[in-house]
Design a protein that fits this description.
The N and C termini lie far apart (about 180 Å). Helix content is about 90%, strand content about 0%. The protein is mainly α. It is built from six helices and no strands.
Length: about 240
């Protein structure tokens, strides 16, 4: 039984191994790293040969200097070839990544379309129209109820405001009436005072003489008037 499990494990590799995209990208990136290492190595060797050529030329060893330059040229040839390989590898990596992105987008769109189709099958246009009609009906009922409630509340508020406004008008009218009465009385008093002052100014009193009526003078004047009236009555009777 343990052998069967081992065989099943071998027959069922991990998803990371079976994924062709991951496997392809792994191979491309490994090759890229190898080519980068080779490029650095060829560049380093070419620099060494160049320095040796300078050294031999300074020592007067022209043949050795030429030989080093030939070796440098060979390293540069290898370096150019490796750079071309790297360019191809990078291009391939970019192409594979872009293609994988296209596949992922296409897969996502396909899944979205399938899900949308399933939803549309689950909810038909007739069902949507029925739902919208029911929703509109409930909204209308709610609006009517709100309007009725708002109308009642507004009426009560207006009546209360009208009563308050009438009370304010009455208070203002009473205040205005009291103010007008006071002003009239004050104006009358002022006019009387002015008239009295004018009469006093019109009376001419001789200088140095001040006439002050007394109670005795008034009594005598009244007795004289009464006697004159009695005399008039006698004359009328005798006639």
């Amino acid at each position: 039984r343990s052998s069967d499990l081992t065989a099943n494990n071998k027959a069922a590799p991990s998803p990371s191994v079976t994924n062709s995209y991951d496997r392809c990208m792994l191979q491309l990136k490994l090759q890229r790293d190898k080519l980068n290492a080779a490029s650095r190595q060829y560049d380093k060797r070419a620099e060494v040969e160049k320095q040796l050529a300078k050294q031999f030329l300074a020592e007067g060893k022209k043949e050795k200097a030429l030989y080093c330059l030939k070796r440098k040229k060979a390293q540069e040839v290898h370096l150019d070839r490796v750079q071309k390989y790297l360019d191809n590898i990078y291009t391939m990596i970019n192409n594979v990544e872009n293609r994988q992105m296209d596949n992922e987008v296409a897969t996502a769109l396909r899944q979205g379309a399938d899900e949308l189709k399933a939803l549309n099958d689950h909810l038909s246009l007739d069902d949507i129209e029925k739902i919208m009609e029911d929703a509109a009906e409930q909204v209308n009922i709610t609006n009517e109820a709100s309007a009725l409630l708002s109308q009642n509340l507004v009426t009560e508020d207006e009546e209360e405001f009208e009563k308050e406004l009438e009370a304010l008008c009455a208070a203002d009218a009473k205040k205005a009436s009291v103010t007008k009465t006071k002003a009239t009385e004050q104006q009358s008093t002022t006019d009387q005072t002015a008239a009295a002052a004018k009469q006093v100014d019109e009376v001419k009193v001789p200088k140095g003489e001040i006439v002050v009526p007394t109670a005795i003078d008034a009594t005598e004047e009244a007795e004289e008037e009464s006697a004159a009236e009695v005399e008039d009555e006698r004359v009328a009777l005798g006639a």
